[in-house]
Structures are given as C-alpha cells and as structure tokens.
Amino acid sequence: MALILKNAHVVDPSVELDGVVDVLIEGDKIARVAENIEVEGAEVRDLSGKYLVPGLVDMHVHLREPGFEHKEDIASGTRAAAKGGFTGVCAMPNTNPVADNGVVISYMIARAAEVGKCRVYPSGAMSKGLKGEIISEMGDMVARGAVAFTDDGRGIQEAGMMRRVMDYGKMFGKVFMSHCQDESLVGAGQVNEGVVSTRLGLLGWPAQGEELQIARDIMMCELTGCPLHIQHISTAAGLDMVRAAKEKGLPVTCEVTPHHLFLSEDDIDSTYNTSLKVNPPLRTQEDREALIEGVKDGSIDAIVTDHAPHAEWEKAHEFEYAPFGMTGLETSLALVLTNLVKPGVIDYSEMVELMAIAPREILGLEPVKIAEGSVADITVFDPTVAWTVNDDEFVSKSKNSGFIGFELEGRATDVFVGGVATLENGEIVE
Ligand SMILES: NC(=O)N[C@@H](CC(=O)O)C(=O)O
Ligand SMILES: [Zn+2]
Ligand SMILES: [Zn+2]
C-alpha cells in the first residue's frame, strides 16, 4: 500500500533538499517527493515538526553474534539500532568464531534477514582469527556479502603483513578499516597515558600507540593504493595525519565516536566507572576539542558509535580487569543533535553527511536519497523532545553506556527500512 509521510522538514544535501515536503512511499521505494501529495487510498502519516532524512547508517557496531550472545545478538543489536534511528549497521568481525571466512558472513546475513530490525552489512576480518598472521578468506567473504575488511579489536602488528593484506585484498575493491594500536607500546594500558593515568594509578595507553599505526597505515595506503579508513580516531595528532593524507590526495577517510567527542579522560574519576573504559581510551580535553574541529571542518568523514556491549558482570570488575567498550546505538543521534547541531557546530545537512551519506560512500553501498526511485530507508526524528538517558529503557542487552543520566534533546521517532516501518512513534514495530 502507498504511504504518504506528510509535512516533515526533509534534509538531504545529496539532492539539495532542506524544507517541508511530502514523501510518497510505494513498496520499498520512494515514489515521489513534492508539496501536498495526495493519493487516493494511501495511508497518511503527519510528521509536522519532525525532520526526515536518508536512513542513518552506523558503520562501526559490535553485534556479538555468533559467540557472545550474552552481551548482544543480532535481534537485540538491530533493535537498539532501530531505536536509535539507524536503518543499517556495519557489523565488526570479532565474533566467535571470528568472521574470517564466508560461512560466518553468510550466517550473519541470514540471521539478520530472519530476526533483524535493520540492514546488517558485515565486515570481514583481515587476518585469520584476528591474529595478524595469515590472510583471511577475503574472496569468499566478499562473494557472500562482506562490505569491508578490518581486524577491529586489534591492529595488524607487522607492517609487512598489513602490506600483504592490502596488496592481496585490493582486487576486491573494498575499504580497509584500521583499528590503530601498536601493542608493543600500549601493552596493558588502561586509560590515556598522562596526568590522569598517574592520578588513577592505572597503566597508560599513550596517544603514540595509536598515532604510530595511523602513520604506518597511511604509508601502506600510499604504497598499495588501497582505500584506508581509520576507525575510532581519538587524538589531535592522529587527525592531523589524516588531514595531511587527504591533502596529498590519498584515499584515506576516518570516523569518530560520540564518546571521544563528548567525554574525556577527566570524566574517569575515583568511582572508576568501567563503562568509561574504551579502546582507544578517552583522551584529553585538547584532543576532544580537536576532534570536534575535525567534524566541523570535514576532515572527519563519519560519526560511528563503536557500539561495544558487555554484560553487567563483565564490567563489574576492577577497572583493569573490565573489558574495553561502551554501547552507543541508542544515544548517538541525540548526542549529536544536542552537542553539535543545537549549538550550531554543524547543521542538519552536515549531520546527514556524517551519519548517512559518508558511511554508505565509504562502505561502497548504494546511496539513499530522498528522491523518486531511491530505496525507502528513512529516519525521522523529533529535534525538540527532551529526555534523560536511562539504562532501564535500553533495548540493547547491555547497559554499559557512558552517558547514563545525560539530559539530551532530540530523538528518533520513526524509521523505515525498504519502506517497512521498524520504529513508530519511538516504539519498535514487531
Ligand atoms: N572499542 C572497544 O573498546 N571495544 C571493542 C573493540 C574495538 O572496537 O576495538 C569491543 O569489541 O568490545
Ligand atoms: Zn577498535
Ligand atoms: Zn569496534
């Protein structure tokens, strides 16, 4: 049946839209975008006061299935994504078994089709078992639908191996996404190395442990010609390296998380809140400000959550024994609206670039436009609704958010994936 989404403020810079228009959905496609659409027999939804944008994509998410279903699974993780306003997520391969072969990729795609509430674009490991020793079954994974390669959770330690992975993998035309961490330097580092690590009495995870591999991978990108995407960038100097690479014309992009933008090492206090233990660690105020500047000037391409769910009992340890990671799918859009769009750091169009257009571009996915003929993956949000982050409301299986208690403004109300509603008035459609 036809569905008319009426009176929303539509923002899509890819078709230069920024104003109130109606959107007609027929089947899985957008059939028309115009003022005052009327179609006999069509269902009408009035979205006055709301914003309607191309469906948001989070290109860095840990769905944990197969293997760690006590933290999250494809059913719960994609529901958290829908609740947060996303129409698709790129799933990381650090599952058990690791997604380093076609069978695991096929499993994830089949499972998502069966129980998912958003599209799942799996990424495949670069190396078998994320060990950095043997190249993964890249061709098989791409044939089964893998959209990118990454050893996320770790970086490949040897430059020579990274070169071989990129040289070999280049033929598949996918992006190489890099978690930058030199293990010989980072060791058992827990928090950013500096005054705060000293005060807390925790081992330091130095900025250079990340920057060394950013520099190396940019060089490997130059050597191999293979597109490189720096994951969860967290330092000012690392961002400057990405800027310089872009200026050189290299195919380098990068992403940042809301926690690296809106939290810093100073938020880790004597309560040793293990939800704030993330990899890479929360950095200094200066880094945080530099990252915001990078979002503003366009040197950061995408905002991602690095949604990394862990069970309550796993996080309920001494800081050094708790696993790294925080959840993010259900707070990301609101954090960006509250802290970047409302204060005028970026506008709605730039937000759409960072959270919908660039992620699809980097992953080589079909673009979604609010235009006739495009697939109807759509996010609708109310920019005025004020709410407080409450872990009782999370649909994710895990509650390790660093933003619990935060007062935010703006929230997804409706989400459509291929014309089908997955979120309606803020509730998951089952
Ligand atoms: N970011 C994290 O702190 N943790 C991630 C791994 C990763 O993204 O590197 C996880 O899988 O838990
Ligand atoms: Zn990572
Ligand atoms: Zn990750």
Automatic annotation (TrEMBL):
InterPro entries for the chain: DHOase, DHOase/Allantoinase_Hydrolase, DHOase_cat, Dihydroorotase_CS, Metal-dep_hydrolase_composite, Metal_Hydrolase
Pathway: Pyrimidine metabolism; UMP biosynthesis via de novo pathway; (S)-dihydroorotate from bicarbonate: step 3/3
Listed SUPFAM superfamilies: Composite domain of metallo-dependent hydrolases, Metallo-dependent hydrolases
Any GO BP: purine nucleobase catabolic process
Residues annotated for substrate binding in this entry: 62-64, 94, 279, 310, 324-325
Single GO MF annotation: dihydroorotase activity
Family membership noted in the UniProt record: Belongs to the metallo-dependent hydrolases superfamily. DHOase family. Class I DHOase subfamily.
Cited function: Catalyzes the reversible cyclization of carbamoyl aspartate to dihydroorotate.
Cofactor(s) in the UniProt record: Zn(2+)
Keywords from the named record: Hydrolase, Metal-binding, Pyrimidine biosynthesis, Zinc
Name of the protein: Dihydroorotase
Stored PROSITE patterns: DIHYDROOROTASE_1, DIHYDROOROTASE_2
Gene that encodes the chain: pyrC
Species assigned in the record: Slackia piriformis YIT 12062
Reactions catalysed, as given in the entry: (S)-dihydroorotate + H2O = N-carbamoyl-L-aspartate + H(+)
